[in-house]
Amino acid sequence: MPARARYGVDAPPVLVGLASAAVFLIAATVVTAVLAGWVAILPGLLALYFVASASLYLHTTKRGKFAVWREILDGLALRGDERALDLGCGRGAVLIAVARRLPAGQATGVDLWRSVDQSGNSPAVTEANATAEGVRVSLDTADMTALPYPDESFDLVVSSMAIHNIHPAAGRLTAVDEALRVLRPGGRLVIADISATKAYASHLDALGLSATTRPLGWRMWWGGPWLPTALVTVVKP
């Protein structure tokens, strides 16, 4: 039987925290129900909240983001011969989806391969996933704020849930600048991220570019509507 691609879990400590809180509160509900009856309503409601939040987070990381990115990439109407770069590619969920659409092109992914950002994150795992999915990709270990590529090297630069991990915040805008630097004129920058997307769009607008931002809906809610994902896109003049 051929190997199956395995994409892990985004930010596993967050999911562990949500699941642990749910388990603790379920236990507290049972104990409180035995000792104090109706008082168990409060921990019970909190338990339901954390169960729902953990379930939604798991759906987003295992299914939702794949469906959303499929629609995003289909909407780009790629020719198939582009050179594309994925910033913070992780285990290859978006990188491999891009590579499928580039039969005559090239898809390159960069990452620092930190397991806190994605479980089991490593170039070997990403390469194995690409092989299992029947595509070829290039992988580099690199910092998004100092990309090891010449100016105007790529027709498309994408990033999914990665740039917000850069600290301090000024480094995130440096990563956006680097993405623009390696992008060819007429090329597209497509970033899906959480809280920092307004800052990316404002930065792009300040550079004289016309960035568009839109929410990506419940399938990319990370635990609930209080942590949604938005998409920022721009075409380099």
Automatic annotation (TrEMBL):
SUPFAM superfamilies: S-adenosyl-L-methionine-dependent methyltransferases
Top EC class, one word: transferase
UniProt key word ATP-binding: no
Gene3D superfamilies per the UniProt record, alphabetical: Vaccinia Virus protein VP39
UniProt xrefs under InterPro entries: Methyltransf_11, SAM-dependent_MTases_sf, UbiE/COQ5_MeTrFase_CS
GO terms assigned for molecular function: methyltransferase activity
Transmembrane regions: 12-31, 37-58
Highest taxon, organism lineage: Bacteria
GO BP terms: methylation
Keywords: Membrane, Methyltransferase, S-adenosyl-L-methionine, Transferase, Transmembrane, Transmembrane helix
EC number(s) given by UniProt: 2.1.1.-
Domain Methyltransferase type: 85-191
Name assigned to this protein: Class I SAM-dependent methyltransferase
Organism: Paractinoplanes rhizophilus
Upper lineage: Bacteria, Bacillati, Actinomycetota, Actinomycetes, Micromonosporales
